[in-house]
Amino acid sequence: MSDPKTRRTFLKRTAAVVAALQATTLTLAKDSKARGKYICITCGIQFKESDGPPNNCPICEDERQYVGWDGQQWTTLDDMKGKFSNKIKQEEENLHSIFTQPKIGIGQRAFLVRTGKGNILWDCVPQLDDDTIKAVKALGGLAAVAVSHPHYYTTMVEWSQVFGKVPVYIHAADREWVMRPDPVIEFWKGGSKELIGGLTLVNTGGHFEGFQVLHWPGGAKGKGVLLSGDQPQVCRDRRWVSFMYSYLNLIPLPARAIRRITASLKPLEYERLYGAFPGLTVTKDAKGAVERSAARYVKAIAV
């Protein structure tokens, strides 16, 4: 039989943890009539300022996402202070990942790409605090922001404004999904857009019509890096990637969409591919992995 004192200590600690989690949840959901720029807890997107939270989150109500099992819940950056922090990790020379802990929203990582012409924030995370601002400034600040697709828009406008109202590049095909309109957002059209430092945005379609990836030719010691967000999505067997219309709800893409994606990526040279989530990186022969995976996918859905 266990020591009663040890058991009491364990129960007290467990109760304290549960209470702390409940307090955090209550704090995040509090004061629903206050004016603020509300953030959806499930997908992490920030909305324009309003008196009380929005009635709904169109991104979560779309069939590619979902409304949280406990219903629509909201928070703000002010409510997040002291409860969330960002871990910044160097992935390779001139590339750092930024990851919010504990998880809020989808749980993706953002990337800071450093170039001789300025730094690009690729994709975004909900949290933005003083420690993060100080760390990013120490790395050279930001010259621009670019986000792959609506699930990762999060607080992109907030990031832009903090770092001097730098441009935020979004493909025009996804304009309708921007929940916090702002003059810093620059919608572009077409198949590709050149950025500073030799970086290029490429529109692939697929997961979203305006889905874009970021090609960094100087990455991987000059062999090239593809920053792909959700598409291609790195599999748990990191020799492979996959492609889906909805990852969460398991809705596949048709073969024509896969062919469009692979055709848009074919001109690019890249040895390494960084996916949206920590650890999901194809470290070598990434272009080969994408092409092999696309062929496997199309074969699997063929009828």
Which terms summarize this structure?
303 residues, alpha+beta, Metallo-beta-lactamase, Chain A, 6-stranded mixed β-sheet, globular
Write the layout of secondary structure elements.
Elements: H1 4-29, E1 35-36, E2 39-40, E3 50-51, H2 58-61, E4 74-75, H3 77-80, E5 85-92, E6 95-101, E7 109-115, E8 118-122, H4 130-138, E9 144-146, H5 156-162, E10 168-171, E11 185-188, E12 192-194, E13 200-203, E14 212-216, H6 219-222, E15 225-229, E16 233-234, E17 241-242, E18 244-246, E19 251-252, H7 255-265, E20 272-275, E21 281-282, H8 286-301
Parallel strand pairs: 8-9, 9-10, 10-11, 15-20
Antiparallel strand pairs: 1-3, 2-4, 5-6, 6-7, 7-8, 12-13, 13-14, 14-15, 16-17, 18-19, 20-21
Helix pairs in contact: 7-8
Describe the structure.
With 303 residues, the chain is an alpha+beta fold. It folds into 2 domains: 77 residues, no CATH class; 217 residues, Metallo-beta-lactamase, Chain A (4-Layer Sandwich). It has 8 helices and 21 strands. The strands form 6 sheets. Strands 5-6-7-8-9-10-11 form a 7-stranded mixed β-sheet, covered by helices on one side. Strands 12-13-14-15-20-21 form a 6-stranded mixed β-sheet, covered by helices on one side. A two-stranded antiparallel ribbon has the order 1-3. α7 runs antiparallel to α8. The radius of gyration is 20 Å and the shape is globular. The N terminus is likely disordered.
Q: Could you give me the name of the CATH homologous superfamily of the largest domain? A: Ribonuclease Z/Hydroxyacylglutathione hydrolase-like
Name of the level-1 CATH class of the largest domain: Alpha Beta
Please mark out the parts with pLDDT under 50 across 5 or more consecutive residues, or reply none.
Answer: 1-30
Task: Quote the CATH topology of the largest domain.
Answer: Metallo-beta-lactamase, Chain A
Order of strands across the biggest sheet? Answer: 5-6-7-8-9-10-11
Number of strands: 21
